[in-house]
Amino acid sequence: MIEVAAEPYPFKLDPERTALVVIDMQRDFVEHGGFGAALGNDVTRLQAIIPAVAEIIALFRAKGWPILHTRECHRPDLSDCPPSKRLRGEGAGLRIGDTGAMGRLLVRGEPGAAIIPECAPLDGEMVVDKPGKGMFCNTDVEAMLHERGITHLVFTGVTTEVCVQTSMREANDRGFECLLMTDCTESYFAAYKAAVISMVTAQGGIVGWATDLAALSSAVK
Ligand code: TIU
């Protein structure tokens, strides 16, 4: 076991059983003209973490440790997008499935649904399209992780309080040991990111641990 300095106490990382999870680093959330922008958000906040996410991906690749990339997106016929999700946001701009500057918003195969080049998966890495906020909902993620013997997950990506937190909570309930990387995740709302970090680590790590890239890098060197 490798001990990583973390909140609320050191995280014991099993180098044989740990995967990096990169949540939804897609053009639709990070770039102008996508789904995140259509909701009225300042996407430049998310762009700030791109170098850190690229760095942790490189670290896991150098170690030969597994990486799971997720994309939030739907089938072109939207059969996996419940009306409650598609129609959410009275008065908002474009909706899921509508055509924007990067193709149809949050639809599989469209330019906006692609992972940004800086974080693009390599052949052999796990890539999962998920129709929900959480990565276990209506996906094969649980089977994929169990098949590889993975018990520990290191969480990165966007946005902290929506898809990252939901996925981390789902993983925690399924028995995975979860570590949130504070400088490799971002929200459109600074206060929500800070709240997630405190709420997951409170009560003795009720949902898991949190640390930063410097602490992880020095521990695994
Ligand atoms: N809106 C928002 O903050 N996030 C999402 O809709 N999806 C993800 O977090 N990926």
Describe the protein in words.
The chain is of the alpha/beta class and about 220 residues long. The protein contains 9 helices and 10 strands. Strands 7-4-3-8-9-10 form a 6-stranded parallel β-sheet, with helices on both faces. A two-stranded antiparallel sheet has the order 1-2. Strands 5-6 form a two-stranded antiparallel sheet. A hairpin with a 2-residue loop joins β5 and β6 (about 105). The protein is globular, with a radius of gyration of 17 Å. The model has no long low-confidence stretch (mean pLDDT about 95). Bound molecules: tricarbonodiimidic diamide (TIU). Tricarbonodiimidic diamide binds near residues 36, 39, 72 and 162.
Concise account of the structure shown:
The protein is α/β, with parallel strands linked by helices and 221 residues long. The chain has helices at 27-30, 35-38, 44-47, 50-63, 83-86, 141-147, 160-173, 190-205, 213-220, and strands at 2-4, 11-13, 18-23, 67-72, 99-100, 103-104, 126-130, 152-158, 177-186, 209-211.
- Rg measurement, Å: 17 Å
Number of E-type strands: 10
Distance between the termini: 13 Å
Taking pLDDT < 50 over at least 5 consecutive residues as the criterion, the unreliable ranges are none
Helix % is: 25-40%
Shape: globular
